[in-house]
Design goal:
The chain is mainly alpha-helical and about 270 residues long. It contains 12 helices and 6 strands. It has helices at about 1-5, 25-30, 40-50, 70-80, 95-100, 110-125, 135-165, 170-180, 185-195, 205-220, 230-245, 255-265, and strands spanning about 35, 60-65, 85-90, 90-95, 105-110, 125-135. The protein is elongated, with a radius of gyration of 20 Å.
Length: about 270
């Protein structure tokens, strides 16, 4: 994403892993019109933005493209507003290949006037840009999207395990499903590209998927919405996170499900 922006804009970047052109978030943000964050969670976003804040001029815009908690986003927005800095939340969907191609889907929360200011930046990164509401709305939609993706991943992998147990060859079965109503991102991409090949390298960590489902659960809880399927989905992702390696790809939850199937047969 930074490489795509760098073709058109003067980009200064910073990352804790040592990549980037600057030595700190404050240096990267000095005099910038826009500060874009893409970080693992809302706590990291808040730390980075508050560290950079003294370098941001009044009228600058913070664009958080991470998957963050909507409530924390609203709180950060209030802190920025006090310094006359605007904010939009603009999380993305589409994995690494769409980030590279600039074809991400982007869910934006914030004021329309602020979105208009940063739209040229977003259009370098995505082709499907949705203004879904006020500040925090983008992060809410992203959490709900990833909950649906997480639930679909569990269902798709479970269907694959049933098929294998029945003796079906997975490739024609998946082809039939992808031509039918059961098609989702798991049957279309994750099963053929990550599971059947043994790659398990979608580029999105299991810990991040678990975090996003938890954000959706917290949102439902705060709104007092009873969500038994969401709770069940979160339970499985948390259990898998405990059993699998810390940096496991999210598609490796298939291994957890397969292990659970084997242990149930033994009982």
């Amino acid at each position: 994403m930074a490489a795509r922006l760098d073709k058109v804009y003067a980009v200064r970047s910073y990352d804790l892993n040592g990549k980037g052109s600057c030595q700190s978030a404050r240096e990267a943000a000095w005099g910038a019109d826009a500060l874009i964050t893409m970080l693992p969670d809302g706590d990291a976003v808040r730390d980075a933005v508050l560290d950079a804040l003294p370098s941001l001029r009044p009228g600058a815009v913070v664009v958080d493209m991470s998957s963050s908690d909507p409530a924390a986003t609203l709180a950060l927005g209030r802190a920025l507003r006090a310094r006359r800095v605007d904010m939009v939340d603009a999380p993305v969907s589409g994995a690494r290949f769409k980030a590279k191609d600039g074809t991400l889907a982007i869910m934006v929360g914030g004021e329309k006037r602020t979105l208009r200011r940063v739209m040229p930046l977003l259009q370098r990164l995505g082709t499907e840009i949705f203004h879904v509401g006020g500040l925090g709305a983008g992060h809410a939609v992203k959490a709900l999207n990833n909950y649906l993706g997480a639930a679909g991943t569990l269902a798709g992998f479970e269907a694959l395990l049933i098929a294998q147990k029945f003796g079906l060859h997975p490739k024609p079965m998946i082809a039939a499903i992808n031509a039918s109503t059961g098609r989702n991102s798991t049957t279309a991409r994750k099963i053929p590209q990550d599971v059947l090949t043994g790659r398990f390298a979608s580029g999105f960590k299991l810990a991040l998927m678990t975090k996003d489902v938890a954000i959706a659960g917290d949102l439902a809880k705060a709104l007092r919405v009873n969500t038994p399927y969401l709770r069940e989905t979160l339970k499985h992702w948390r259990a898998a996170q405990k059993q699998l390696p810390r940096n496991a790809d999210h598609t490796e939850i298939y291994k957890y499900q397969k292990r659970a199937l084997t242990s149930s047969r033994r009982r």
